[in-house]
Design brief:
This protein is α/β, with parallel strands linked by helices. Helix content is 43%, strand content 16%.
Length: 455
């Protein structure tokens, strides 16, 4: 997506050269006054604002940009160590943030993604940066109302000290939301300590959480602090807390009540100053009702609830997620551009994604690395995605009183036309083997059905 980009940076030449080389129309300014003059005097699709502008006061221009151009997306460029600047910029309405220096591919991907969103008629795409596992901000897209509500809750609760319970299916990004809460909180400079409650044997969970003294058990040759001690002054994130054993639940409750931990084998409690964020993909309320999760602990955790929607509940975000993940993997692996053909894109949009965002990301990485040509086609997608039911598929020939054989024939005919003669996809939709489908095609005289549409 080519657009008119305004770069406001003390030394904008290198950034401008990277964008001009790819066809963008670029205007550069090196001061806040120049930025405001340029905004008032010419059309702009995207502003790239450096926090280094005017001796580090660049963020002060954000509010003025919003007054002059309320709908203009602003990509804020921060310097190394500017995580706090990124958090402030996002709270003030920046569309995205990028840390400089960065690779040309990363810059181009961010710019073109925001330009594409800005030029979609009648719609707006918002991104919010969260701290990823590599310590770098990564965008969360929320064109959909479901994700916008989750982001709104995140921004409201992040500055507080409250415990947060994050709910959502596996793969929706619960840990990324938890990181974002920490990143946007007053504790951002303190430790971030994650602990997956299902990844540790039950016999070791107490030692992992609270630490142990030397000699507390066989193999305990040194004193080891637990995750709660390591999180002192920061945030501890307990993932999949719904799978925690009853014994560990009881000990966790005591920590939350007293803000003290007792190391295994210890005799003196240790004070801890932590913020707790917990997450689960199970129905914690139902487990509480069945007596599988302590009621008192449930209410201790359920101070603020943040629900991360599934990907199928935010299907409006899928096109931007596709472009973002594809651009990221291409840039990370120094690969040439890849184009996702419209039919393949439509299949990805239609698929229900039981593995959510994680499944989509992994699939696009696999396609980018394994498809030999520049175009990713529908035939390159896994068969289970090719065979996913289409919302537009209908069977008009079925009616009350039709015999079972005629109904089966009509079902197979419509399915073959829908998949353009692709027997593997048709068999997947019909939940039968390809061999069974071939036999039925011969029986009903449908062996060429759908092939004309494919040609």
């Amino acid at each position: 997506m080519i657009g008119q980009v305004l770069i406001a940076h003390p030394h904008p030449e290198a950034l401008a050269a990277q964008l001009v080389e790819t066809g963008h129309v670029v205007t550069t300014v090196s001061s806040r006054k120049g930025l405001l003059r340029a905004l008032a005097g010419q059309p702009v699709h995207l502003a790239l604002l450096s926090t280094l502008l005017d001796e580090g006061e660049g963020l002060a221009a954000l509010e003025e940009i919003h007054i002059l151009k309320p709908d203009l997306p602003v990509l804020v460029a921060t310097a190394p160590g500017g995580d706090n600047d990124a958090a402030v910029a996002l709270r003030r309405g920046a569309a995205d943030c990028i840390r400089l220096p960065c690779t040309p591919a990363e810059l181009l991907a961010r710019v073109e993604r925001l330009l594409a969103a800005a030029m979609v008629s009648g719609e707006s795409l918002t991104t919010h940066d969260i701290l990823g596992p590599d310590g770098r901000p990564r965008p969360v897209f929320h064109r959909s109302r479901a994700m916008a509500q989750a982001i709104d809750t995140l921004l409201r609760v992040a500055p507080s000290r409250s415990t947060v319970l994050i709910l959502g299916e596996s793969g929706v990004g619960k840990e990324l939301f938890a990181r974002s809460i920490h990143f946007n909180s007053p504790r951002r400079d303190g430790p971030w300590v994650p602990l997956n409650c299902t990844a540790i044997p039950e016999t070791m969970i107490e030692s992992e959480m609270f630490g142990h003294e030397r000699g507390a058990f066989t193999g305990a040759v040194n004193r080891v602090p637990g995750k709660f001690e390591l999180a002192h002054g920061g945030t501890i994130f307990l993932d999949e807390i719904g799978d925690m054993s009853p014994s560990a639940q009881m000990k966790l409750l005591r920590v939350l009540e007293d803000r003290q931990v007792m190391r295994v084998g210890g005799i003196r409690p240790v004070h801890v100053d932590i913020r707790l964020i917990a997450a689960t993909n199970c129905d914690l309320e139902e487990r509480r009702r069945r007596g599988e999760f302590r009621e008192d602990l449930f209410y201790r955790l359920n101070v603020v609830t943040l629900r991360v929607p599934s990907l199928r509940a935010r299907s409006d975000d899928i096109p931007e997620l596709i472009d973002h993940f594809l651009a990221d993997v291409l840039a990370a692996n120094h690969l040439p551009p890849r184009r996702l053909e419209p039919e393949a894109r439509a299949m990805l949009q239609n698929y229900r994604w039981p593995g959510n965002v994680r499944e989509l990301k992994n699939l696009l990485e696999s396609l980018a690395l394994t498809v030999p040509g520049p175009d990713i086609t529908a035939q390159d997608l896994p068969l289970h995605i090719q065979a996913a039911p289409s919302q537009g598929m209908s069977i008009e020939g079925l009616r009350a009183g039709i015999c079972l054989m005629d109904a089966e024939k009509e079902l197979i005919r419509v399915t073959m036309e829908h998949v353009r003669g692709n027997r593997a996809r048709a068999a997947g939709l019909l939940r039968i083997s390809v061999r069974t489908l071939q036999r039925k095609l011969h029986r009903y005289g449908l062996t060429t059905t759908g092939r004309r549409a494919a040609g």
